[in-house]
Specification:
By secondary structure, this protein is mainly β. The protein has one domain. The protein has 1 helix and 5 strands, in the order E-E-E-E-E-H. It has a 5-stranded antiparallel beta sheet. The longest helix has 10 residues.
Length: about 80
């Protein structure tokens, strides 16, 4: 299960672990950056990864590809 919340400058996608074994993972998408965060109970804070929108796009594209090295075409192609 996941939720999508769209605000004027942010899109937040939260992916919930239905088994209850893992904390929710949240994707915070902005025009110039994407953050992936998950709460860490041991430190009582979020662990955060920052990437560019292009890196996030490539990560999503990689989900459907077999082993190999890839170079995605320009978005304007």
């Amino acid at each position: 299960m996941f939720t999508v919340e769209i605000d004027w400058d942010e899109t937040a996608v939260t992916v919930l672990d239905q088994s209850g074994e893992h904390e929710d993972v949240q994707f915070l998408l902005y025009e110039d950056a994407v953050y992936i965060r998950q709460f860490d109970n041991d430190s009582n804070r979020h662990t955060v990864i920052e990437m560019s929108p292009d890196q996030f796009h490539e990560l999503m594209a990689a989900m459907d590809l077999p082993d190999g090295a890839y170079l995605l075409g320009d978005k304007n192609d």
